[in-house]
Amino acid sequence: MRLAAVDIGSNAIRLQITHITQYEGTTNFKKLEYLRFPLRLGMDVFHSQRISEKNRRKFIKLMKAFKLLIDLYEVDDYMVCATSAMRESINGKEIVEEVKEDIGLKINIIDGNHEAELINMALGAYIDQKSYLHIDVGGGSTELNIYRKKEKVASKSFKIGSVRALDDNIPLSVWKSMSRFISDHVSEKDKITCIGTGGNINKIFELTTPRKGKTSISIDKIKEIQDYLASFTYEERVNKINLNPDRADVIIPAAKIYLAAMTAASSKKMIIPDVGLKDGLMQVLYKKNKHKKNMA
């Protein structure tokens, strides 16, 4: 069985196609294709509340390309979800309808809570009986989820994101609201561990050390990497550190968001599982289709 997931974010758009098989009682997920295209819809929306004509045309072309790949791989089922940029855009629904009518690709615009639920579906292996704060930083929003003994006890989405923060125009009241949410649900006795998801925290972790089985990073190391990155200009981050152009500017504000949440929770460590919305979508698709016989 082949499944496809598309994550339409504020800073980039991702497609993953996965082949799922059953062998000797084990379910195997094999990634066949992964594409990340740096289309920054959030820059339009967070400034003018609409997707520009230039980016609309690019988006339509990209959806045509993704639909071709989905068809070429003979995918059995797919899900396409759009997050904060599309849901806050005045012309987002209009573009979604255009894609559906002209390309035959259905896009679901989801709210922050649904986005968090989907990401959480991919975190099962990382959550045990201890207390955790899951922090997912996207381009337009940050989703927070608090777990105790494997149960989610609180969840909230905030309009704080790496693209939105580029011009430092996030109101102080929103930052305070995020910190207050954490302090209202986390006490010192929790000794909470954070779980970080999102492309920027994965890149920060990658800059500290090769994974080699390691899955966590300290708050001090995140601060160290943030300071290291800030010591370079944008051009130097692209050319000396070899960051993608659409990563080189947002990674520092993203680090600020992760650090703010960790500090509010008095957490010293973050687990980096390298999963995201696309992985949650894949879990939903698998549960929906696993009863089918084409698992070869």
Automatic annotation (TrEMBL):
Q: Per its UniProt entry, which superkingdom is the organism in?
A: Bacteria
What Pfam families has UniProt attached to this entry?
Ppx-GppA
Q: Which SUPFAM superfamilies match?
A: Actin-like ATPase domain
Keywords annotated in UniProt: Hydrolase
| Lipid metabolism in keyword set | no
Domain Ppx/GppA phosphatase N-terminal spans what residues?
29-282
Q: Which EC main class describes this enzyme?
A: hydrolase
Enzyme Commission code: 3.6.1.11
| InterPro entries given in the database record | ATPase_NBD, GppA/Ppx_hydrolase, Ppx_GppA_N
Any one GO molecular function term: exopolyphosphatase activity
UniProt key word Metal-binding? no
Q: What is this protein called?
A: Exopolyphosphatase
